[in-house]
Design brief:
alpha+beta; 3-stranded antiparallel β-sheet; globular; 10 helices
């Protein structure tokens, strides 16, 4: 693929097609992790790319107070980014040829569908062994908590409700080498509480901690 010249902000043109090309396996990077860890990736997965993604998804509006969380997921999860770069038909078909400005109920429904696609991609990526070092060392994400809720309804009211909560953490392993994933019980202290306890014990910062 021929890249267009860098602009004044150090960005390539046609970045959407470039990222599609890369995420589908035809990468200019030696490995996926090399690409995710590059300045190129951080430079281009930004507010401008999010605006392009909103166009791809039928001009789906993302509220300003949610945009940074969406960009964060896109940086954490190549699966989420790949899904965002392609039209999600249940969203785009519902927005085709319609002026939905001000139709917040419809926009919120489509946003929920979009967010669900991104979140499922992040959950899949976080659980893979290959992504452990990237999430733990580069991005500083040591735990992913995931919640689900299902409610069935009848004409008479709510039929049943079930909820599930999972906590998956990444830890450096001196025994196996590299990083391992562990399932945490619900009452396990939060990561920041563990750091507070460690600081109290050591009277100093954790060695090897990453501020990303």
């Amino acid at each position: 693929m021929q890249l267009t010249p860098l602009d004044g902000e150090g960005r390539y043109g046609h970045i959407v097609e470039m990222l599609k090309f890369w995420l589908n396996g035809s990468s200019m990077f030696a490995t996926l992790l090399e690409g995710l860890s590059s300045k190129f990736y951080d430079r281009h997965v930004d507010e401008e790319l999010l605006r392009e993604i909103m166009k791809i998804q039928g001009r789906l509006p993302i509220p300003p107070d949610q945009s940074q969380s969406v960009i964060r997921i896109l940086k954490l999860s190549p699966r989420a980014l790949n899904r965002a770069l392609h039209p999600i038909e249940m969203i785009t078909n519902g927005r085709a040829d319609l002026d939905l400005e001000g139709e917040e109920s419809i926009n919120e429904t489509h946003r929920s569908m979009f967010y669900a696609a991104l979140m499922s991609g992040l959950v899949e990526d976080y659980g893979t062994k290959e992504m452990g070092r990237y999430h733990y060392e580069l991005r500083g994400v040591v735990e992913l908590e995931h919640r689900q809720s299902v409610t069935t309804k009848s004409w008479g009211g709510i039929d049943m409700t079930l909820e599930a909560r999972s906590r998956l953490t990444i830890r450096a392993s001196n025994v196996q080498g590299g990083f391992i994933h562990l399932i945490l019980p619900g009452d396990q202290p939060e990561p920041w509480d563990e750091i507070d306890d460690k600081l109290k014990q050591d009277d100093g910062p954790l060695s090897g901690s990453t501020d990303v």
